[in-house]
């Protein structure tokens, strides 16, 4: 059964009226690259009809090599494989897929396309970018979250150590929404017309069609309420931004957030400050180390501002935390590809899951609480001065003027 999704006491703005909430889902949370790729590869091995993959980038390394070899075998088995990745995402990683790699993949039967390849003068390719991470297998199981395809999700990186991220496997009617997000974009970019009932088999008990996958052990398995919040070429304006705001504005007890690029638009920052005034316990984890220059200084500026308003901001020291999750009132969780920066909220194509399920939210809270208590330090007026030299505090103030552009 599908319903128009409405939180209690919330009258959604017009741009979120089409958000559908399905009620018969399972979801499994993966907190590491090893967990995600082991499960994903096991599902791909059992595909019978179609495998659809959409990523910001496929890094040309050991994981993608293993993935493409597996996909090549599935093509030989008669499975249709379609893949798409972002041109900027590809160019911005240090081991991009080159034309020779794409030609090789096409020759092996893997239909793969690059969205908006970077071309001179480059400035006309700034926005939008496709930042989503979606995999749909046989229309029955789907994966989405914050991880691309790269071996550093397992091995980490020398500059900051281990890489922490969140991904999820979904089963149930919500899979159809993820399939639609993929195919709508695929058809627009490739000028194809891929559609039909075979891609939307409806509710299927994935546990009977796929074996050796990590089970959903929550008491709510098969009954979870999930809405796919897709921000694509033809989606309503800024649906992820609107959902973030609605959840924050309606919180009554607690908000917990992990986000790597916590640069914040003024709407989100103001909503968090208003939540503090209502007596809501607002806790935020940001990463002390980052894979992007300048952005950390802007994050530090926002952390300092919010700390002075009463937000508890924790700096994660256990590597790089790339997770993008928010839990509200121990009931709702919002997870996916979207960062809390201007690009994700206003311009890029993103995909998040809005989950109304206490057991799933508890799983995510357990991850949050463990990282907060074991690998973080709390920002206070004292630690602000102890941890950051005057020159760095000045840089945080200076670079915050670039917030609308990062």
Shape: globular
Total beta-strand segments: 18
Give the DSSP E fraction (strand runs of 2 or more residues). Answer: 15-25%
Q: Bin the helical content.
A: 25-40%
Provide a count of the helices: 14
What gyration radius follows from the Cα positions, in whole Å? 21 Å
Mean pLDDT across every amino acid position: 93
Spans of at least 5 consecutive residues with low confidence: 1-17
Biggest beta sheet summary: 16 strands, mixed
SSE class:
alpha+beta
Q: Distance between the terminal alpha carbons, to the nearest Å?
A: 39 Å
Q: Quick summary of this structure?
A:
By secondary structure, the protein is of the alpha+beta class. The chain is built from 14 helices and 18 strands.
Report on the structure:
With 406 residues, the chain is α+β, with helices and mostly antiparallel strands. The protein is built from 14 helices and 18 strands. The chain has helices at 33-45, 62-76, 87-92, 99-107, 152-155, 174-190, 206-209, 239-250, 266-277, 295-309, 342-347, 358-375, 381-387, 390-399, and strands at residues 2-4, 20-30, 50-55, 80-86, 111-115, 134-137, 141-145, 163-164, 167-171, 224-231, 254-258, 281-287, 312-316, 320-321, 325-328, 332-336, 350-356, 376-378.
């Amino acid at each position: 059964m599908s319903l128009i999704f409405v939180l209690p006491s919330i009258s959604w703005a017009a741009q979120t009226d089409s958000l559908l909430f399905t009620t018969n889902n399972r979801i499994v949370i993966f907190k590491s690259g090893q967990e995600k790729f082991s499960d994903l590869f096991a599902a791909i091995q059992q595909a019978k009809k179609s495998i659809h993959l959409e990523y910001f980038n496929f890094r040309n390394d050991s994981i993608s090599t293993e993935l493409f070899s597996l996909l090549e075998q599935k093509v030989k088995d008669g499975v249709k494989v379609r893949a798409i990745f972002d041109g900027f995402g590809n160019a911005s990683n240090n081991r991009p897929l080159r034309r020779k790699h794409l030609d090789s993949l096409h020759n092996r039967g893997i239909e793969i396309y690059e969205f908006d390849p970077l071309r001179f003068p480059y400035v006309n390719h700034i926005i939008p970018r496709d930042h989503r991470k979606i995999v749909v297998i046989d229309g029955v199981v789907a994966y989405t979250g914050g991880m691309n395809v790269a071996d550093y999700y397992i091995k980490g990186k020398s500059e900051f150590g281990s890489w922490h991220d969140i991904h999820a496997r979904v089963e149930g009617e919500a899979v159809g929404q993820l399939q639609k997000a993929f195919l709508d974009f695929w058809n627009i970019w490739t000028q194809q017309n891929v559609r039909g009932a075979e891609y939307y088999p409806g509710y299927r008990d994935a546990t009977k069609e796929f074996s050796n996958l990590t089970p959903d052990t929550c008491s709510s398995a098969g009954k979870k309420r999930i809405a796919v919040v897709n921000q694509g070429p033809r989606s309503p304006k800024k649906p992820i931004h609107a959902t973030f705001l609605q959840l924050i504005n309606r919180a009554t007890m607690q908000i917990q957030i992990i986000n790597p690029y916590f640069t914040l638009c003024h709407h989100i920052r103001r909503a968090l400050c208003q939540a503090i005034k209502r007596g809501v316990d607002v806790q935020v984890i940001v990463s002390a180390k980052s894979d992007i220059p300048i952005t950390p200084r802007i994050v530090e500026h926002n952390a300092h501002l919010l700390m002075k308003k009463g937000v508890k901001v924790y700096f994660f020291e256990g590597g790089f935390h790339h997770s993008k999750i928010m839990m509200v009132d121990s009931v709702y969780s919002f997870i996916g590809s979207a960062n809390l920066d201007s690009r994700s909220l206003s311009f890029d194509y993103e995909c998040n899951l809005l989950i109304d399920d206490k057991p799933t939210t508890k799983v995510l809270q357990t991850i949050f609480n463990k990282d907060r208590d074991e690998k973080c330090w709390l920002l206070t007026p004292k630690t602000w001065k102890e941890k950051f030299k005057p020159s760095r505090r000045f840089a945080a103030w200076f670079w915050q003027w670039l917030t609308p552009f990062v």
